[in-house]
Amino acid sequence: MWHGIAISQFNLLACAALIAQKLGLEETMKIRTTLTLSILLSALFFAVPVTNAKKRGGGDSETHRMKGIELASAKQFDQAIAEFNKAVEGAPDDPRCYHDRGTAYRAAARAAELAGDQAGASAKYTSAITDFSKEIELAPKDAAGYAERSQTQDLIRQYDAALADANKALELKPDDPLAIKFRGFAYIGLLQWDKAVADFTVAIQKDPNDPQNYDRRAWANRNLKNFPAAVEDYTTLLQKNPNDEDALVRRGATFAAMMEYEKAIADYQAALKIKPDDYDTVQRMQYAQGQLAAKNAPPATPTPTPGSSIFTPAKIFFAVVILVIIAVVVRLMTRGKPEEISSSRIR
Q1: Torsion over CA of 164, 168, 173 and 177, rounded to 10 degrees?
Q2: Of 131, 136, 141, 342, which has the most beta carbons under 10 Å away?
Q3: Helix, strand or coil, per DSSP, at residue 105
């Protein structure tokens, strides 16, 4: 592009020389001044798109960014991050590059957690927050950076910071379903169950196909002991996906909390058909079965406890003592009295 600009400048100067041969010096100076301004304007005209393209991630930067997105979609997070690094180098003022690299770092962190690499996960979460912070710095009026940073802070249990970012995102974009959802996560982390239910209800209205909204609202309702509402949300999830093992187990746990053990056992059995080796579900089912057996058992007949009999050794002893005392008293009272003569004695 710059080569083309140089050629244009050369052509303009050549034209100026030809015109100068036919006109006087004064006119020539005017023409040269005009042409010089034209050259400068032409250079500016061509330079601005180049600069803007660099800021927007044009050229090689955009190629690396798109390659990074492709790799991240294939869950090749380290390779994706390497491509996003090149995109950032090519367009350091493009907030999209930091946004994309931040999401790749966060996904890599979650993968590290699942692999048991807590130190690696922590480092990647920190890098993600750094990238989202840079995105916010470059585009402070865009809600996306705040929403993404809020989600990341939810994952590392920084709920106050997550709540602040979600509120900022909603200030900039009040109808953003993701920001509402992430604020709901923050409310759950802060044990503000009522507010969580309210946010997930709005999120469901805006995006009824997001299963997380139903699951988290159900969890909040369970903590509010609003069990029927929780059961309804889990049932909705199972209508959408009958093989949702987590929804079956959680609905079973909700039924158990309601002491509806038959329904709890049915859900646990269905979950074990999907995932037979889930020891936790087996334990839950055994507990529900035990509670159901106790609930349905006939009332036990009370049996006398040892020592409750009327004739105990102590009682017998005291009875004998009392009888002896009575006998002694009677004997003392009757001693020395003349014997009465019966009227029926034969004379």
Answers
A1: -10
A2: 131
A3: helix
Question: Which residues are CB-neighbours of 295 under 8 A, at least 6 positions away?
Answer: 259, 261
- For CA atoms 244, 249, 254, 259, the dihedral sign is positive
Q: Quick one: CA torsion of 51, 55, 58, 62, rounded to 10 degrees?
A: 160
Residue 171 burial by Cβ neighbours in a 10 Å radius (0-12, 13-18, 19+): exposed
| CB burial of residue 169 (10 Å; 0-12, 13-18, 19+) | buried
Domain parsing of the chain, residue ranges: 2-48, 225-295
Q: What is the CATH number of domain 225-295?
A: 1.25.40.10
Pick the more confident residue, 257 or 19: 257
148: Cβ contacts below 8 Å, ≥ 6 apart:
99, 102, 103, 106, 132, 135
- For residue 219 the two structure tokens come to 């969890």
* Average pLDDT of span 203-232: 96
Under 8 Å CB-to-CB from 109, ≥6 apart: which residues?
Answer: 120, 121, 122, 123, 124, 125, 128, 155
